[in-house]
Amino acid sequence: MHVFVTGGTGLIGTAVVAELLAHDHTVSVLARSESSAAAIRAAGAEPVPGDLADLAALRAAASRAGGVIHLAFANDFSSPEALAAAVAEESAALAALGEELVGSDRPLVTVSGTPWIAGRVATEEDPLPLDGPVGGRGRSVMAALGLAQRGVRSSAIRLPRTVHRDGAGGFAGLLTTIARQSGVSGYAGDGTQRWPAVHALDAAVLFRLALEGAAAGSAWHAVADEGDAVRDIAAVIGRRLGLPVESVPPETYGPLGPIFAADQPASGAHTQAALGWTPIHPSLLEDLELIES
């Protein structure tokens, strides 16, 4: 299959592109710059000039593809306004991709976060949050899954708070970055809140499996670790960086503060059983041991 990928040069996207190529798919990747295009060519894929705001480029690339994997997001958490703009941009892009595939029965695999459910581990049966800092992403993903009624084999991979590789990535990566800047390896509240995680290489396999065979309108959890306590994550970061480990106000994390403070374990058991997905790469706490001081 020829697959068009957005966000194919990031931590997750590079793993997804490599996984697709290793399984005899051909791949085209949205490229915002010549340096990105060069990296895409070096990986063995075809660059498609444009960015997430270029809806014409997205539609044209989707029209030529046998399937689409959407991963791109601006990841600007500097302010509530910047985050809202990033969510709006992604929503428009995903809508454009979906409309291009209507009536074709081609796959569209998109991405969201795992939901958080008070008092228990979230499963694939639970709905996405449709309000809060990233509620707009949940609404756009639900709209994409609704395209199953219009001849699109749409599915969603729900990613945990940390997708990691070589000690970097996700919320744990943000904790590391903030620790380097502040001189404290911090966590919100008492640190007992749990975050799920997955290695990027394991997540990439799940994206491929969904592309190749997931049912229309289905949602899956790319979860290997159901939930590590955030203070345990901060403890490894602090030890690796030689920094004190302390509780800090949720406001330290800007508009993501409420999410950083929330207990949000999630399970991937149904996904593993139904799609035959078996995570094999290091856990988050193991991977964080690769952080360089």
Automatic annotation (TrEMBL):
It comes from the Bacteria. It holds the Pfam family Epimerase. Residues 3-217 form the NAD-dependent epimerase/dehydratase domain. InterPro entries: Epimerase_deHydtase, NAD(P)-bd_dom_sf, NAD(P)-dependent_oxidoreduct. Gene3D superfamilies: NAD(P)-binding Rossmann-like Domain. This is NAD-dependent epimerase/dehydratase family protein.
